[in-house]
Batch of 2 targets.
Target 1
Amino acid sequence: MIVGDDMSEKKRKIKEPKLTHLEEKSLEKCCQHGELEYGIFKEALIDSSIKIEEITIDSCIFQNINFTNVLLENVDMVDVIFENCDLSNQHFDKKLLSRVIFKNCRLTGTTFCDASLRDIQFIKCNCRYLNLSGAKVNQMLIDECGWEDTTFLETTLKEVELNNVNFERTEFIHTSLADIDFSTCDIYGTQFDSFSLKGMVIDPFQAQYIVGALGVNLKG
């Protein structure tokens, strides 16, 4: 589907994180006790390896934290904001993320395979090499992000809003993109199968990339 001038914009109603009664806390101390709830965690230098496992991170704000030495294993997240954080190569496979915001974050190589993502926002993030294979996504905003070389394989996408997203070399395989508006996005070199393309919204200029993805040559 090619977007027309008369198409009315759909307004997504993404739920914001519910954050009340928060206290500034030490990330290392809370990790030692296995509790990450109702806290504000600010810039921290984490030299030694820390493992956070088998918990739900609930009602927390993380600011300017590099999680390179923090292993998040079997962790659900509800009502969480990450701002200026590095979450590269973390694995949230088969986990629940609800009302979570990633702002100005680095998520290179992070995986959400078979995860449940609800009311999620990615704002000005580097998400290259993300993997959402098998994920179920309901209500998601991606705003001014780099999602190059990302994998969507049998991903369920509902109520997704895109604004200036770079999807170069990303793969959409057996992933319905019906009614999702890509008209502000870079889809150069993006791979689509015929199932994924049905009902997708693009602008006329992007049609050349869609045709190219299907192996058809346009005659000038």
Target 2
Amino acid sequence: MSNQAYFPANEADRVVWLTHFCTKLSTHSADLGISADDVANTLADVGFYVWVIGTWNPAIQQNALEATAYKANIATGAGSDLMPLPTHAVFDQTPAVRLPGVLTRLFNLVQRIKISAAYSDSVGQDLGIIGSQNNSAHLIPDFTATTERGASIERVKIVFTKYHHDGVSIDTRRNNGEWEFLAIVMVKPWYDERPLLDASVPEIREYRLRWWDKGDANGEFSPVQRVTVGP
């Protein structure tokens, strides 16, 4: 998900922002050239996403906690009364399921809004799509990637500063191949100790980081750092 300085990392704050945006979208949609279908689809997308993070996911997590406690009690608990199985959550009103990419579609809509001839800073402020100056200091992680001798081969040491974020999401590629997800890291330093693709040949490894908060990667990728790892 690309960085949107106006979009909160915290899920509780996201619900507030999304509710506000949806309330204001209909007010400005005609002037901005946003069709009624686009508005309806955005409202449906957001409604489902808010339900997932605010209702469905907490309920499922609670189910998991109750199931774990029940399993432990059955295994080693005490007492002379039978314990009924936990009752799982039942949702009375479930919104229509939406396709993956709710936030991607939302951010694409925001970009359309910002290039509209009718867009202005006042419209952006009203919609909540202008990032706060206070949030702009550390939009991307800063980090260092260096090599050092490990137990049998070189390893890469990655050091970063969290700036109050939960951690970082690390992507990597080797020898100019395809980028791939590597790890979620919350404690520094972190070591990439993967074996070489060819045990006898040095390889080039590149790294780029994004912020990781509350279960989501967010923000722009950092500048790429590149190191050579030897046997």
